[in-house]
Design a protein that fits this description.
This protein has about 625 residues and is mostly beta strands. It has four helices and 51 strands. It has three domains: about 200 residues, no CATH class; about 100 residues, Immunoglobulin-like; about 325 residues, 7 Propeller (Methylamine Dehydrogenase, Chain H).
């Protein structure tokens, strides 16, 4: 292992700098400057990990016969576009003399391995592969306390100091040269001898054009085009070609090519029985040299109203990125940055809550910006239908939750609850709501039920019509599947689950015999329910359930051992009201450890939790889990 640490310590001095034309003295000055240190450390870590990941992608492209469709020079380096729709990013840096002898070597078995000074690196007697599912892509970070670079070779489970201070030093990067030729791209590594040669898909540079502007804080997003069912979009392509024809379109899709405009008018199929469909759109062309060239793109259509699908709302990182939406289809397809993909714009900063009503989705953000504090979008397409900016809602102070009745939105903030007329855009404070908890509100009929410490506020027609006293602090209020009722969790000792009538406010209280209903520090209910069975975890990794009809509480089991990177439960888990599967959002920790995270899913039908899915490293501070069927 010692050899590996030496290797990365040397490589690091180049991985965070570059050998082209960008002068990063300012970056390293900022690292040593208290005021700019956080931002500079973030940039350095991002550059280091991006270059390491880029090198591995190049190796895997060679082994998989993947070609390069284009090389785009950017302000900060290069973006490499591959024929399989993926990308790699290479950063610029400063010329220097401390070039690390980092390379890859093709061994006798035909596979590529990481090498230092021409010698394949080994860990505990095993060669370190640079390709394949069992290959290692090291992760780097800067320890916020010691300011030393640290490395993880196990996906972020453990970190070891490399003994290198993040103080900057002139030095070449992993790459010393990139030559973009007509038929191939040649990448020369820092030793000046090792090269990786990847052919270009076409001398005509025939390829679909993907958005260059990624969501703030994001890198390397998967390239594909996302449609609503029945939507028509015009996709453009590049390339010096004299003739173009349609080679393939998925079943039900249509494509109309305009050679002069270098575009394709693509129409997704009308919705039928499936809420998600995808396929490959391929064009065949003749370039100016008479050669046959191909361009392909993955195209997908989705209906976001699927009752068996799942939403995860991301806060985003307050300093570096905005809110976003993850949509997990019933078949397990993960659509990250779904709102951005459908609108080419972003949610506001620190997204907090989501509500679905009358075919619309409402997303509220604490800080606004971009598409505003409140966004209204179509529940099927996720395309925005209205936006409310910070100026529109200037009376609000750190809004956190939203509920909608008809054309009135109820918004909770630090001062209490407000009504917003969605048509006239009139914002009005609701009297006697100061102290409403930072947690979700529930709607039954025309009434809004909001937790407020040891009571529940009932709002109707913009006013408090009832205050329901509880025995302890309310940790959750959710709509029941049974019409006219709600479930309430109360952190008495022992804890209580209460069935609340929305009409006469009667309470049917059950005392739990196991677990508790804490919602932690988060802003989501401490309970969720499927039918008359209520699930909770008491802000731990143990799942409990209470059968209200039988008045029994049982412990189902601890799921922590399933997730190697389990660190913090970030907002409360939830049971899917249709499938009965239980969803946890966990992050490894704060700082940049939040980038190591899991959406883990458990089948509870047999009693003991059985993990059925683990979606890794998609969330960015998850604000909560939402299901269309819950509204």
């Amino acid at each position: 292992m010692k050899k590996l640490f030496i290797f990365f310590a040397i490589a690091l001095m180049g991985a965070v700098t570059w050998s082209c034309s960008y002068d990063d003295d300012d970056l390293w000055n900022a690292v040593n400057d208290l005021n700019g240190r956080v931002e500079a450390m973030e940039q350095a870590v991002k550059k280091a990990n991006s270059d390491i990941e880029a090198l591995r992608k190049l190796v895997e492209a060679v082994q998989s016969n993947v070609t390069i469709t284009s090389v785009n020079k950017t302000e900060n380096g290069y973006t490499i576009h591959f024929s399989d729709g993926t990308t790699a990013t290479i950063s610029n840096g400063q010329n220097g003399t401390n070039a690390p002898a980092l390379s890859v070597i093709k061994d006798e078995d035909g596979l590529y391995y990481w090498a230092l000074d021409g010698v394949i690196i080994e860990i505990d007697g095993h060669k370190v592969k640079a390709e394949g599912s069992d290959g290692i892509t090291p992760q780097l970070r800067i320890n916020p306390d010691s300011k030393e670079w640290e490395m993880s070779a196990d996906g972020g489970q453990s970190w070891s100091s490399m003994g290198v201070k993040a103080e900057g030093s002139d030095g070449d990067s992993i790459f010393s040269d990139v030559q973009d030729g007509d038929s191939e791209v040649i990448f020369t590594l820092a030793d000046g001898e090792t090269t990786i040669v990847i052919p270009k898909a076409s001398t005509a540079d025939f390829a679909f054009v993907y958005p260059e502007e990624l969501p703030l804080g994001s890198t390397g997003e998967e390239n594909y085009f996302l449609f609503a069912f029945g939507e028509e979009r015009t996709l453009t392509f590049t390339g010096d070609v004299t003739a173009v024809d349609l080679m393939n379109a998925p079943q039900g899709w249509t494509a109309d090519i305009d050679l002069n405009a270098k575009s394709v008018k693509v129409t997704a199929p009308a919705f039928s029985a499936s809420y998600y469909t995808e396929g490959i759109l391929s064009l065949i062309a003749i370039d100016t040299k008479g050669q046959t060239v191909l361009a392909s793109a993955r195209i997908c259509a989705v209906d976001f109203s699927d009752p068996e699908a799942t939403f995860v709302l991301n806060e985003g990182n307050m300093t570096t990125e905005n809110g976003s939406i993850i949509h997990i289809t019933a078949g397990g397809h993960v659509i990250d940055h779904a709102y951005w993909r459908m609108n080419a714009s972003e949610l506001g900063n620190v997204a907090q809550d989501m509500f679905i009503s009358d075919g619309k989705i409402y997303i509220i953000s604490q800080n606004g910006g971009n598409d505003g504090i409140l966004v209204e979008a179509d529940a099927k397409t996720l395309k925005n239908t209205d936006k409310f900016s910070k100026d529109d809602l200037s009376g609000l102070s750190w809004p956190s939750h939203v509920a909608v009745v008809g054309r009135t939105a109820y918004i909770r903030d630090n001062a209490g609850i407000w009504t917003l007329d969605l048509d006239t855009r009139t914002l009005k404070a609701v009297e006697n709501t100061k102290g409403a908890l930072k947690n979700r509100m529930a709607v039954v009929g025309d009434k809004v039920f909001a937790p407020a410490s040891k009571s529940i506020l009932v709002l109707e027609n913009g006013a408090v019509v009832q205050t329901i006293a509880m025995d302890g602090t309310v940790t959750g209020v959710i709509k029941s599947d049974e019409e006219g009722f709600l479930w309430v969790s109360c952190s008495t000792s022992p804890a209580q689950i209460i069935k609340l009538s929305a009409s006469d406010y009667t309470l049917d209280k059950h005392t739990l015999t196991a677990g508790g209903v804490s919602s932690g520090w988060g802003a989501t209910p401490g309970i969720s329910a499927k039918g008359d069975v209520i699930y909770f975890c008491n802000n731990t990794s143990t799942i409990y359930r209470h059968d209200f009809a039988a008045n029994t509480t049982e412990t189902l089991g601890d799921v922590k051992s399933n997730i190697p990177n389990w660190g913090i439960i970030y907002n409360m888990p939830a049971v899917h009201p249709v499938t009965g599967e239980y969803y946890f959002n966990t992050i490894l920790g704060y700082g940049w450890s939040f980038l190591t995270n899991d959406i883990s899913v458990y089948n509870l039908s047999a009693g003991a939790p059985a993990m059925v899915a683990d979606y890794q490293n998609y969330t960015h501070f998850p604000a909560g889990i939402f299901f269309t069927a819950s509204f």
